């Protein structure tokens, strides 16, 4: 059996004193370090989460800007095509007008040459007819 005497009380008092000293010198500082470390890790996780969110937001912004830039490029390209088609149509119209004008000029030149040739043929026909008449009749008419 266990006897309860003064040594037990001294041992309990020493144990409680040791527990108090260990608590003050070791357990509380270690516990404080553990809590600080956990808080630091929580802060780092929160920072990491924040960085991930910023990265995701930046990625979305970049994708949005890229899509906007692609859309603007398509619009500029379509505008350039419209301008090029308009210029090509204008050039075709100008060339067609030149062709029509050239045809009219050539037709006019041909008609003038034809008229000159007719006049010249009439003169030659008249002179030939006079010559033939003179030869047939034997006298000048």
From TrEMBL:
GO cellular component terms, semicolon-separated: endomembrane system; plasma membrane; proton-transporting ATP synthase complex
TM regions (residue ranges): 6-27
Coiled-coil ranges from the UniProt annotation: 41-131
Keywords tagged on the record: ATP synthesis, Cell membrane, CF(0), Coiled coil, Hydrogen ion transport, Ion transport, Membrane, Transmembrane, Transmembrane helix, Transport
Keyword Acetylation on entry: no
Molecular-function GO terms, alphabetical: proton-transporting ATP synthase activity, rotational mechanism; proton-transporting ATPase activity, rotational mechanism
InterPro entries xref list: ATP_synth_b/b'su_bac/chlpt (IPR002146), ATP_synthase_B_chain (IPR050059)
HAMAP family, sorted: ATP_synth_b_bprime
Function: Component of the F(0) channel, it forms part of the peripheral stalk, linking F(1) to F(0). The b'-subunit is a diverged and duplicated form of b found in plants and photosynthetic bacteria. F(1)F(0) ATP synthase produces ATP from ADP in the presence of a proton or sodium gradient. F-type ATPases consist of two structural domains, F(1) containing the extramembraneous catalytic core and F(0) containing the membrane proton channel, linked together by a central stalk and a peripheral stalk. During catalysis, ATP synthesis in the catalytic domain of F(1) is coupled via a rotary mechanism of the central stalk subunits to proton translocation.
Protein name: ATP synthase subunit b
Protein source organism: Desulfoglaeba alkanexedens ALDC
Gene: atpF
């Amino acid at each position: 059996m266990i006897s309860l005497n003064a040594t037990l009380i001294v041992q309990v008092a020493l144990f409680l004193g040791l527990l108090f000293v260990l608590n003050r010198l070791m357990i509380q500082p270690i516990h404080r370090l553990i809590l600080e470390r956990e808080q630091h890790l929580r802060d780092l996780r929160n920072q990491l989460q924040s960085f991930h969110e910023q990265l995701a937001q930046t990625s979305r912004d970049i994708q949005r800007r890229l899509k906007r830039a692609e859309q603007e490029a398509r619009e500029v390209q379509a505008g350039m095509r419209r301008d090029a088609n308009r210029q090509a149509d204008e050039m075709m119209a100008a060339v067609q007008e030149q062709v029509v004008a050239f045809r009219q000029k050539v037709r006019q030149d041909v008609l003038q040459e034809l008229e000159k040739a007719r006049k010249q043929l009439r003169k030659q026909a008249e002179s030939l007819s006079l010559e033939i008449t003179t030869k047939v009749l034997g006298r000048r008419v």
